[in-house]
């Protein structure tokens, strides 16, 4: 695996990889776990070469969020990626991505509204901007993202569609189902912030979501199942629920009942850690 930290070297290396076959990109912020490695394995099945980016993007962190505390484990992450047969690791410094005088921002309306967009102002502008840059820097044939950040994936696909991206084309921006721990909690780098007690309590989140979906399957509106979900998390020791909503899986428009293409989206805080999750209403 070749590790690159400057654009000049990246631009010398990627054309050689592409000349020898297709290239997949798996964008990450590092602190890799089994969920990330599942994305890498999927990318390996879909392309001849795999590039992984590790970049803790300052533009998607708001005031008071955990930019400085976000885990940075490049040596450990590198060893994991080598073991998975990754060809290229793109690990730039912030000054390489946002050089002095940088002044451009990408904002994607609609799908970025509400949910995490409401609770983290400017977050998805930062996501869209950095992913646009990563696509232009690496120019992959396909890109692979996890569905845990469903709204993020919707924002990226909308951006690629609206801006006529070719590498990757919007149809080549692929989502992988959420990888979960044995107790159902979605794998996330932020799970490392949880104390043992909070980690045990966090398992209530996916269970409460499944219970709400079961009630919704009986018919009726969303008020009772979502109210039950909020109460369950409160009893389990969660500090607050940022949102618990049913939305259309494609447009992310709010729904008051299942339309056959709906997902349940939840963000909740426990012990100072914000956890997000989503599940389809129809299995």
Describe the structure.
The chain is an alpha/beta fold and 283 residues long. It folds into 2 domains: 2-176, Rossmann fold (3-Layer(aba) Sandwich); 189-280, Pantoate--beta-alanine Ligase, Chain: A,domain 2 (2-Layer Sandwich). 38% of the residues lie in helices and 19% in strands. It is built from 10 helices and 9 strands. It has helices at residues 7-19, 34-46, 74-83, 94-97, 116-119, 123-138, 150-162, 196-202, 204-216, 223-236; strands at residues 2-4, 23-28, 49-54, 88-90, 142-146, 173-176, 240-248, 262-270, 273-280. A 6-stranded parallel sheet has the order 1-4-3-2-5-6, with helices on both faces. Helix 2 (34-46) links the parallel strand 2 and strand 3. The protein is globular, with a radius of gyration of 19 Å.
Can you lay out the helices and strands and say which pair or pack?
Layout: E1 2-4, H1 7-19, E2 23-28, H2 34-46, E3 49-54, H3 74-83, E4 88-90, H4 94-97, H5 116-119, H6 123-138, E5 142-146, H7 150-162, E6 173-176, H8 196-202, H9 204-216, H10 223-236, E7 240-248, E8 262-270, E9 273-280
Helix pairs in contact: 6-7, 9-10
* Strand order in space, largest sheet: 1-4-3-2-5-6
What is the tally of beta strands? 9
What is the CATH third-level topology name of the largest domain? Rossmann fold
Q: What is the CATH homology-level superfamily of the largest domain? A: HUPs
Q: Brief overview, please?
A:
This protein is α/β, with parallel strands linked by helices. Helices cover 38% and strands 19% of the residues. The relative contact order is 0.13.
């Amino acid at each position: 695996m070749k590790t690159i930290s400057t654009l000049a070297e990246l631009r010398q290396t990627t054309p050689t990889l592409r000349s020898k076959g297709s290239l997949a990109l798996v964008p990450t912020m590092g602190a890799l776990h089994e969920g990330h490695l599942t994305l890498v394995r999927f990318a390996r099945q879909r392309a001849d070469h795999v590039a992984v980016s590790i970049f803790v993007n300052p533009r998607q962190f708001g005031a008071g969020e955990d930019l400085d505390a976000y885990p940075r484990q490049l040596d450990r992450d590198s060893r994991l990626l080598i073991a998975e047969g990754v060809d290229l690791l793109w690990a730039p410094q912030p000054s390489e991505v946002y050089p002095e005088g940088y002044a451009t921002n990408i904002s994607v309306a609609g799908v970025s509204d509400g949910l995490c967009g409401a609770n983290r102002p400017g977050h998805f502008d930062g996501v869209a901007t950095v992913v646009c840059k990563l696509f232009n820097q690496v120019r992959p044939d396909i890109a692979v993202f996890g569905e845990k950040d469903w709204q993020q994936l919707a924002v990226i696909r909308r951006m690629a569609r609206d801006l006529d991206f070719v590498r990757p084309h919007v149809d080549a921006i692929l989502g992988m189902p959420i990888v979960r721990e044995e107790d159902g909690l979605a794998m996330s780098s932020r799970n490392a912030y949880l104390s043992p007690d909070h980690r045990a309590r966090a398992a209530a989140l996916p269970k409460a979501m499944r219970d709400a979906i079961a009630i919704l399957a009986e018919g009726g509106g969303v008020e009772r199942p979502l109210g039950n979900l909020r109460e369950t998390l409160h009893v389990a020791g969660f500090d607050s629920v940022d949102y618990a909503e049913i939305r259309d899986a494609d447009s992310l428009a709010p729904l008051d009942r299942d339309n056959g293409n709906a997902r349940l989206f939840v963000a909740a805080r426990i012990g100072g850690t914000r956890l997000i999750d989503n599940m389809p209403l129809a299995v």
